[in-house]
Here is the input.
Amino acid sequence: MTNVLLATGTHNMKCTRIFLLTLVIAVSGCDGPSSTHSPEAEAASRQLVPQDLDIAAIYGRSCSSCHTVAATGAPLTGDVSAWSPRMEKGMDAMVDSVINGFGGMPPFGLCMDCDAQQFEALIQFMATPGASP
Here is the structure.
């Protein structure tokens, strides 16, 4: 009986560790603030949604949680001044940063099933002034 209880306790401990590790990874996708943004800019970023429905769905589940909150340190959607220096690196470098993770952004930017073309569309959307595409 003692062995069963020990085995169950060990299993529960492993499950707890896996849960906590997953939680830490999910939360680490958002980094500390890198610049200050007005509450208006943050609110405006929350109103922007890609016109393409597939890209909009991906953006809503994988990108908006960090790219619409200034405190995360992620460049806000539609903020040209934040995106310009990044975009100067070129789209290949930007997609590479998404795939491999960069700063507080985890690998694949929380979209494990996205392909390079979807990442390009998401980056282009977020980097566009007023994010109109």
